[in-house]
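Q: How would the structure tokens look for this protein?
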Amino acid sequence: MCALDIEWYALMYLRYSNLVDFNMAEADRRNFNAGFVTDLNAAAKKLKEGKVIGIPTDSVYALAASVNHPESVRKIFEIKKRPLETAVTLLLPDKETLENAKPNFHPVLMAFIKPCPYGFVVPKGDWLKKICPEETIKLLGDKDSVCIRITNSTPLCLFCLKSGPLVISSANKHKEPDSTHHDMVERAFGDAIDGVVKAGNSLLKKSSSIVNCLDIQNDRISYFRIGSTSQDDIFRDYRAAKESVRTLTNK
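A: Here is the predicted structure in token form.
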């Protein structure tokens, strides 16, 4: 690994550990040693080339592909034996990426979406065309909605910044248990994928929660799945988002 890669990664670490709710347990456990950074850079290169790999996320392990390679996104469904109508997640490196796409979202929804280990089901629209090719958009969610997540994991930021936003899906065969260690990913998929970032145990033991935000304009959210983040914690974030919008409106 060249010195430039080490310097670039250090800058990304500092940037994202300051700007997002960075999980310091992750930094402490993995120590961002040279070997781990080398693995991350190699993985980012594979994603940019259109490969499908297993990666540690801010919850459990996931299979990932760059949005810029629709054929690789489709391969995730094939590898997992997952029906195409079953949703996957669009992973963004930061909120700025979403804001630059200018989605016509309700103000509370924009305030609610933040870097965190759970997903938001939101309306599809022309904003997606500023992030994904048309062929990838067809593979995301259904005709009206898509699940998005903004990562609070520095390694995932690295992947997204080097390869473009990612499409991710938990690294397990359809309806089988989540992978909480890189060994489980290797056993489940073997040579069907193009590698696994070997980061040991996953940060969490459950896959991410997914929040239905399609009726947020009527002050209603619901849950497609309660996973690693509790309903109480999510609703607390939702109340905080509403309060922040109310405060801005009253100024």
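Strands lie at 53-56, 61-66, 89-92, 119-123, 145-150, 166-170, 210-212, 222-225.

The chain has ten helices and eight strands.

Upvote if useful.
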